[in-house]
Amino acid sequence: GPLSERPLMEVRLGELHTWISTRDFSPQGLLGTAQKAWNSYFAKYINVKKGGPAGISMLLTGYCLLSYSWNYQHFKRYRWRKYH
Fold it and tell me: Does the pTM exceed 0.85?
């Protein structure tokens, strides 16, 4: 199909620049992309007939890592001021 309709994993490295230029980077386009990614994740890992804890645990692990990374800089600055 056309390059603009191909998913990222099907785009060759030489076509990457052209593929990126066809993307919609407006707020509405980015919101639509995020919604499509969430729906895909939900359908694959959460809303399945024989599901397990994998989908929920991946979501919680991602949240914990993101939360830690947000707070790590704060802790690092606090320690620097406290000891120097």
Answer: no
28, part of any domain: yes
The boundaries of the domain holding residue 23 are: 3-77
Is residue 39 domain-resident?
yes
The three state secondary structure string of the chain is: CCHHHCCHHHCCHHHHHHHHHCCCCCHHHHHHHHHHHHHHHHHHHHCCCCCCCHHHHHHHHHHHHHHHHHHHHHHHHHHHHHHC
Look at the chain and report how many structural domains it folds into. Answer: 1
pLDDT digits (tens, 9 = 90+) for 34-59: 999 899 888 887 777 776 777 788 88
